[in-house]
Amino acid sequence: MQKRIFGLSLAAGLMLTAVVAIGLANADEMTIGVAFDKIEPFRVAEKKALTDAIAGAHAKMVFANADKDPQRQASQVDSLVSQGVTAIIVIPWDIEAANDLARSAIASGIPFVSLDQAPSDLQSVTYHVGGDPCADGKVAGEFFVKEAAGKPFKLLELQGGLANDNGIRRSKCLDEALKAALNITIVARVPTDWNPQKALEGTENAMQAHPDLAGIYAPWNDALQGVFSVLKEKGRLVPVGVPTHIVIVSIDGTPLGCKAVRERLIDLEIATPLPEMCYRAVVAAIKAAGGTKAEPHAEFLPGIPYGPGDVKEMASKVWGCNS
Amino acid sequence: MLVGQNGAGKSTLKNILSGLVAPDTGQVHLAGRVATRLSAVNADRFGIGTIHQELSLFENLSVAENIHLPHLPQRLGRVDRRTMEAQTRLVLRERLGASIDPWTPVEELSLGERQMVEIAKAIHRSSSILILDEPTTCLNLHERARLFSAVRRLRKQGYAIIYVTHFMEEVYELGDQIVVLRDGRVVGTGTAAEMPRERLTHLMVGHDLAAMTAAPAPVAVDAPVMLEVEQLTDGASVWDVSFRIHAGEILGLAGLRGAGRSEVAETLLGLRHGQGNIRLRGRPFSERSPRAAMERGLVLVSEDRRRDQAFLSRTVRENLSAPLLSRLVGAPPGFLRLDREREYATRTTAAFDVHHPGLEAFMLALSGGNQQKAIIGRWLQSDPAVCILDEPTKGVDIGARAEMHRLIRERAAAGMAFLLISSDLPELIGLAHRVLVLHKGRIAGEVPRAGAQPNRILSLASRGREE
Amino acid sequence: MTTRRRLSRTGAQLWSLTAVLLLVGIGFASLSDRFADLDNLRNVLLQAAPTMIGATGMTLVLAARGIDLSIGAIANLSLALAIALSGTRSEATLVTDTTWLVYPIALLSGLLFGALNAAAINILRLTPLITTLGTLAVYRGLGLHITGAALIPVSGPILSFGRAQVFDFGLPVFAALMIAAMGWLFLAQVPLGRQLLALGGSPRSAIETGLRAERLIVLAYAISGLCGAAAGLITVGRVGVVNPDLGDGMEFTVITAVVLGGTSLFGGRASVLGTVLASLLLTAVDNGMTLTGANPYAYDVVRGFVLLVAVSADAVSTYMHTRGSPLIRELRA
């Protein structure tokens, strides 16, 4: 047993020396630590955008994925800090825990930039850049009000994660925009945890209860496949303009979302300015490492709304239409 | 002395007295008072301490902690280890005459020592009445003797003791008063002097037992060798064991606890790794596993069959048919014929006198003795060529014991070969054609039926040679 | 020896589960007139099918005193492999077109990954909990690697099974009921199934009784993996995408259904019928809440509440049935 412990500590010691040696060797080269909350299609696109932006700044990237585990994310950030990276860009999973992670990194002299998901206390981070879930939800709500045009309108609201800032605010601000329109009834709010299968079941159940459903709010692109499956089965998957069409609004701007718009299957899509967002995060991280304060301290980039009518003109601004 | 066969109601009576089960009617008088609302929590306030058949100690805690729980002595808010140690020593040494270190974890104690700790625990709770439920079932001869002397000592110190047992020897060795239970009723009471052995047996069983000492049928001169073992060694507890068993022969295997008797059986079956040549019915048996053994007609009824061979959470029917499901497959092919399985189970339970609340009852619902009989029945009914019986009558009452002996003799007469492992010398001498004696894993000698005296076997077993 | 046939413990559990299912049904039916209609029955059955199939496989594993945390990851990896091997991706439409080969590939890989779980348990002699927790991560990681964590829309035969209709009911409903029936028959009347229960009841006894414990373990986990892949095929067939989240958390739903159905977490006691009822109950609760337009935050509360009620109903019925705690009953015996 003792022998084993000795062996282990010897190995640990050697590793530590190696890490320090590498750290010293690359002291003049910048390394940006990137810690994601999970891996999914949208994140893959974000990772690619970050990789491009970091390479453009002649820096190196160290990547970690917490796979929806706040504990794991905490230890990943800790190890990035102890590796002595130049700056850290994090997509927080737990928006409360992120505050402490940020404070301890900053206390060690390493800038902490939060991306996409805002931590609960924006003051804790060096800089935040994300989409504006509230603005996006409001745009969606206003669109439904316009579509309903004063007539009775039954709406199904699919919800993303209820423990997650983007999920909560995309729903809350939709509700606020709809408050004044008494002709619109939200017949069901279905929590899905961003899972397309739950989106499918929720749509199926809502269509069952309300065959006269007029609109569906699918606040992330991955939900669309589930929604389409149900509509197809019920014979309601028809292009915009056909009388039996159900009004659908989605958010994200992924290739799949753009494709649905081009096929005229959905009425409105609000594309998150993903490359812009990632670029700003990297720039702010590098600036902060150089001692320049990020101004403004936090930025929320509203999405770019586009529909079948203007997809041709807008395509160049929507990342999903170009990739 | 509370005496009775398995299922006579001894344990239930004990459970009522110790407050685990409430009586439907009737009263318990204690020291002239009626004890109402007797419960497990206040039984010790009434001065009743019970030592159950299944020991209830915390194996991970020390002797002293076990004796004192749940009220550990405290001083200044901390556990007072010195007082605890002193009290533990007092109880163990003064009252019971046992020398066990108070700080040994219970898991390191032998069963006999655990029994002592149980008794010490009961006495420590200021009991004046002690109930001992079959305390010797798991003990070896030496431990049993020590327990007896402890019980005698307690009696002298003024404790009243209710001793539940179905062993005749214990009744006469310890008892003052005898109460015999059968089918839940008291069928006889009296002092030991008033109740001779024959009368007691009669009361317990309800009828006279057939002569228990009938000799086994002689082995035919030309009987083929069924099992041949040469230089069986497992490198730990079994060394160079060789023997042969012929068809129809009952070979006894004697030895002290730890002499390697069960290990011989386990090595034969492949439950333990070992070397040695084994031939079953003339053919080599080298790829050993319980399954291969079963297919070749060699079965083992293990000593702790309740733990090692029973499926307590499954039904009686499934327990009986478990090893031979392939024989019960019928139409449609691949599926079990449940009717045949039930019929088989009914036959087995009848043949082996297993009392059960129904074939679909869980095995757990059967009394310990009946579980044993069911497992023995499972193996014998499958008609093996060679059957190894490890302590077949341990924990079985005298009626069932006689029945078991009759069955073994009958099957042997029909050509089945037996290896009978037993600590019960009268059983070995009464049943076996020859007795092999093991000493520290080696065969110390062979005693033929004609010359089988307990002393000869005992001295071989304990010293490895004859006087 | 009583001739009166006693209701077994699992029997009592089935009745209490049926009662809770009926209560939930009546409750939702009074809140929404669309709940108790044939169309909705179709929906509930169809939505319950993947859970039911996965849970039937899991019932066998739990019966043998095991647990398979990796069942959802197996669903994910099997489907990822199947579309990677048999699908062709079109860059223009972003859709991966499949051939009939997805079915044998997905099912066989499910079987294989399940058997690998068993091999790890047998060879490394680790507890099933730790082993499958490990393989959960490995399988999930491999699945993500194969799909590149992308959401992959699929077309072609892969959709046929999940979307086919038979007598106006979805084909998956019949498949699920059939698999459950086979599971039930297997445990009740096939020697291997019986041996699985015996092994779960007492591994030591199983070995001394000459059962091939290691083979039985392989069998149970392989079936569980197979069922996981089948559940994945249905889900993907219905949704029309292989998403990186596929099968995420499936193990919890499935194990909940199995245990709620009266199968012991400690082996030796299993009820496939209970598993089926419990799967329906879990699905009906979610379905009813959408139909009645419940507050999204209430979903988890109601789910938890129904679970507690079902478990207490079981405890009460067991108590009434045995007239006392199991301990006392055992002492009396």
Walkthrough of the structure:
The complex is a heterotrimer of chains A (323), B (467) and C (333). By secondary structure, chain A is of the alpha/beta class. Chain A has helices at residues 2-25, 41-56, 70-83, 97-107, 133-148, 165-178, 196-209, 223-233, 255-262, 274-289, 311-314, 319-322; strands at 31-36, 60-65, 87-90, 112-115, 127-131, 153-159, 184-191, 215-218, 247-252, 268-271, 298-301, 304-306. In chain A, the strands form 2 sheets. A 6-stranded parallel beta sheet of chain A has the order 2-1-3-4-5-11, with helices on both faces. In chain A, strands 7-6-8-9-10-12 form a 6-stranded mixed beta sheet, with helices on both faces. In chain A, helix 3 runs parallel beside helix 4 (97-107). Chain A is elongated. The model of chain A is unreliable at 16-27 (pLDDT under 50). Chain B has 2 domains: 2-205, P-loop containing nucleotide triphosphate hydrolases (Rossmann fold, 3-Layer(aba) Sandwich); 225-463, P-loop containing nucleotide triphosphate hydrolases (Rossmann fold), CATH 3.40.50. Chain B has helices spanning 10-17, 63-68, 81-95, 111-124, 141-156, 168-174, 197-205, 261-269, 290-295, 305-308, 316-321, 338-351, 368-381, 398-413, 425-431, 454-463, and strands spanning 2-3, 29-30, 33-34, 48-51, 74-75, 78-79, 129-133, 160-165, 177-182, 185-191, 225-233, 241-246, 250-255, 275-280, 283-284, 298-301, 329-330, 335-336, 386-390, 417-421, 434-439, 442-448. Helix content of chain B is 34%, strand content 21%. Chain B is α/β, with parallel strands linked by helices and 467 residues long. The mean pLDDT of chain B is 81. By secondary structure, chain C is mostly helical. Chain C has one domain (9-325): ABC transporter involved in vitamin B12 uptake, BtuC (Orthogonal Bundle), CATH 1.10.3470. Chain C contains 14 helices and 6 strands. Chain C has helices spanning 9-31, 38-63, 71-86, 102-124, 128-147, 158-163, 171-189, 191-201, 203-208, 213-239, 250-260, 272-291, 298-322, 326-332; strands spanning 88-89, 96-97, 152-155, 165-166, 169-170, 241-242. In chain C, strands 1-2-3-6 form a 4-stranded mixed beta sheet. In chain C, strands 4-5 form a two-stranded antiparallel sheet. In chain C, helix 3 runs parallel beside helix 5. Chains in contact: A-C, B-C. The B-C interface holds B 11-12, 15, 20-21, 271, 289-291, 293-295, 300, 302, 307-314, 318, 322-323, 325-326, 328-329, 334-336, 338, 355-358, 360-361, 364-367 and C 1-2, 5-6, 8, 185, 189-191, 194-195, 197-198, 201-202, 204-212, 264, 267-269, 328, 330-333.
